[in-house]
Amino acid sequence: MGSFRREEILEKLQRGESLERSDLRDLTLDHSSLEGANLQRADLDGVNLEGSTLKQANLSCSNLREAYLAGANLEAANLQKANLEEANLEDANLQFADLSYANLEGANLEGANLKGARLHYAQLESANLGGALLEGAELAHADLSGSYLGAAKLIRANLQHARMEGANLEEADLSPCESNEGHPASRLRRGCQFHWRTSRGRCLVERGFGPRQPYHGGSEAL
Predict the structure, then answer these.
(1) Phi, psi at residue 13, to the nearest 5°?
(2) Distance CA 185, CA 200 (A)
(3) pLDDT value at 207 more than 50
(4) What contacts 57, CB < 8 A, 6 or more positions away?
(5) Which one is predicted more confidently, 188 or 164?
(6) Percent helix, strand, coil in the chain (nearest 5)?
(7) Max Cα distance, the chain (Å)
(8) Could you tell me the pTM of the whole model?
(9) Distant-in-sequence, close-in-space partners of 58: CB < 8 Å, separation ≥ 6
(10) Mean pLDDT across 92-100
């Protein structure tokens, strides 16, 4: 398909037409209703979807690089294998969304609601997840290297085999996963164990490793 204007897109959606593989680059679709839309493999590079409703939309394999999705409602949306590199998802609702294998490298997810979201094998290197709600999120095998998770709520999140090198979890809530020692260096999440270090008052993950591997504990002041 070729490129479209905002009015054409909204008309197609009202008629229930598919927008699969559509070229929607750099369009302004803020505060629009795209609930249940089929945008599979669509090119949405740089699109403005601020405050839009994309609940249960199919965005699998779509290109949303540098898209502006602040405050958007993506509840239960299918974003499997989507490219969201450097996208802005600040305060977005991604509750129960499927982001398995999605590329979220450098994305801004500050304050986003990711409760119950599926993020298996997701790429979250250098992503900003400050203050994000990740309660019950599935992050098995996700790459969170260098990400910021300050004040994030990771209650009952599954971080099994996740990569956490250099991640910042300052004031993050990982309860109820503290061990008896109560030290953040001993916190566990379903078999995933972290080695922490302290730098200028920040709590950083120095390395992460899977179950049944030796852990030498302690924090080192720099």
Answers:
(1) -65, -40
(2) 16
(3) no
(4) 34, 35, 36, 37, 38, 39, 74, 77, 78
(5) 164
(6) 5, 25, 70
(7) 61
(8) 0.82
(9) 37, 38, 39, 40, 77, 78
(10) 98
